[in-house]
């Protein structure tokens, strides 16, 4: 039974939380981690205060989940990758040597253990639409949603790394816009399985007739599309949310169109909120054109806090982190994300532009963000990248007291029209401990973070309010629900 403990759980008629009348909104905070030694601050594994190298132990994840639960963190957002970064020096060697997101283990495996020691923490798991069939992904996420009582979100990504494609036997990645076209069909197949295959009353559990589930209430899906073909019933009965809460990362033209159609939350990254704002405005505009409430899409930005009880303490933590930072590791990540092999530049003060990206495979939105200037970064050069890349993954790093960092979060929310943040760490669990013990009390004092939390909510209810575990009625996935489902005709190729 869901216990409601504050007025923010109230919703409007379409399933979204009612807007506050004081002009403020509670900030949504996710802890941002990755099942790897060097996430966004490579080199910190050398820091004796850091436990990044312990992530292959289940105790790391259990302890982290308990900490985040204590702080009322919305979700643990887990990045993932399917290949190493080999743009820098045209080699994977420094990616491996510097532990720049290498090695990487599967992020889904520890989820059940973390769910077992928490009741409210949600989990956002990155998985690609490129490397496995929709049926297999649907089965895994339905299972996780069952085992966590509905606390699962999916960060939808399309894969682009050469190394990852070679690992599965393909010579080159799929072209950027085609990946999103494929991903759109992928999601529609999943909606058919998650939303359209099972009636809500398909499980009858009738011992007298020896009937556990009624086959007449479990539809066989026949999808014959451009990229995918399947004829099957979904093998897992409906989970608490049916469709996991849908995150998406990517703000290119194709990515923005995809987000405006499918995403319930969008993960964005930049050094400045003014760089993000037009991209966020565009996705909200596209969503409205699709018949969606634009405010229902929640935007989370990367943000790395370095907190101290005094400014001096925070600065000391920052200086200590710089001692262990791997500059080369940061350059490996930057080069991989943007397609700019920064090792080629002899002039450290040469301005970097999008034309310097000679690699066809890259994250288009990140290349745009880190070749676009702002008042924070008036010019991108190899020297600037080297100074910033090793701590925080080129995203904003705020150093100071809880009040100082909270001021910066408020500025980003206001200037960027954001809803929350994926808080990255410098050291783990140290950064997250400081967030829980120092930052959240300051946000609560400002009435920017709830002091009381509804218990036992699904991942979607934690965003939209109690009673809203299902997809919103204005979301495209709702058009595939069992009671309204209509089979689509097979795809027919058209000669161009």
UniProtKB/TrEMBL annotation:
GO molecular function, one term: monooxygenase activity
Gene3D superfamilies (UniProt xref): Luciferase-like domain (3.20.20.30)
Disordered as annotated region, ranges: 1-20
Short name of any one Pfam family annotated for the protein: Bac_luciferase
InterPro entries cross-referenced by the UniProt entry: Diverse_substr_monoxygenases, Luciferase-like_dom, Luciferase-like_sf, NTA_MOA
Keywords carried by this UniProt record: Monooxygenase, Oxidoreductase
Record domain Luciferase-like: where: 46-414
SUPFAM superfamilies: Bacterial luciferase-like (SSF51679)
Superkingdom classification of source: Eukaryota
Family, per entry: Belongs to the NtaA/SnaA/DszA monooxygenase family.
Name this polypeptide is given: Nitrilotriacetate monooxygenase component A/pristinamycin IIA synthase subunit A
Organism: Tothia fuscella
């Amino acid at each position: 039974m869901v216990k409601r403990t504050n007025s923010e759980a109230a919703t409007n008629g379409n399933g979204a939380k009612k807007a506050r009348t004081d002009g403020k909104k509670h900030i949504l905070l996710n802890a941002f981690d990755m099942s790897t030694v060097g996430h966004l601050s490579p080199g910190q594994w050398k820091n004796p205060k850091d436990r990044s190298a312990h992530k292959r132990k289940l105790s790391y994840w259990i302890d982290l989940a308990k900490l985040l639960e204590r702080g009322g963190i919305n979700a643990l957002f887990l990045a993932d990758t399917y290949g190493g970064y080999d743009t820098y020096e045209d080699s994977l060697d420094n990616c491996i040597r510097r532990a720049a997101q290498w090695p990487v283990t599967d992020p889904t495996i520890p989820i059940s253990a973390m769910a077992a020691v928490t009741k409210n923490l949600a989990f956002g798991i990155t998985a690609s639409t490129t490397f496995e069939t929709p049926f297999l992904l649907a089965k895994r996420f339905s299972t996780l949603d069952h085992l966590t009582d509905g606390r699962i979100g999916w960060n939808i990504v399309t894969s682009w790394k050469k190394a990852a494609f070679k690992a599965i036997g393909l010579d080159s990645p799929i072209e950027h816009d085609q990946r999103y076209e494929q991903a759109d069909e992928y999601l529609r197949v999943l909606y058919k399985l998650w939303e359209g295959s099972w009636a809500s009353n398909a499980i009858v559990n009738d011992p007298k007739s020896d009937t556990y589930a009624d086959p007449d209430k479990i539809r066989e899906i026949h999808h014959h599309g451009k990229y995918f073909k399947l004829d099957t019933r979904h093998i897992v009965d409906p989970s608490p949310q049916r469709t996991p809460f849908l995150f998406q990362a990517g703000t290119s033209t194709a990515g923005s169109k995809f987000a405006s159609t499918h995403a319930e939350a969008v993960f964005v990254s930049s050094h400045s909120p003014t760089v993000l704002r037009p991209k966020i405005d565009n996705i909200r505009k596209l969503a409205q054109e699709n018949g969606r409430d634009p405010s229902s899409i929640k935007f989370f930005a990367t943000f790395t806090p370095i907190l101290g009880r005094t400014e001096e303490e925070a600065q000391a933590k920052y200086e200590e982190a710089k001692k262990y930072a791997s500059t080369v590791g940061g350059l490996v990540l930057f080069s991989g994300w943007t397609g700019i092999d920064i090792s080629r530049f002899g002039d450290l003060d040469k301005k970097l532009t999008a034309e310097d990206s000679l690699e066809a495979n890259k994250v288009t939105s990140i290349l745009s963000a880190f070749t676009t200037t702002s008042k924070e970064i008036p010019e991108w050069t190899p020297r600037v990248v080297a100074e910033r890349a090793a701590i925080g993954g080129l995203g904003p790093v705020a150093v100071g007291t809880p009040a100082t960092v909270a001021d910066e979060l408020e500025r980003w929310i206001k200037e960027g029209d954001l809803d929350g943040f994926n808080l990255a760490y410098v050291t783990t669990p140290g950064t997250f401990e400081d967030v829980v013990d120092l930052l959240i009390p300051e946000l609560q004092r400002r009435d920017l973070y709830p002091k009381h939390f509804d218990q036992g909510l699904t991942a979607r209810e934690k965003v939209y309010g109690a009673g809203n575990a299902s997809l919103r009625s204005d979301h495209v996935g709702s058009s595939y629900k069992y009671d309204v489902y209509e089979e689509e005709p097979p795809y027919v190729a058209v000669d161009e």
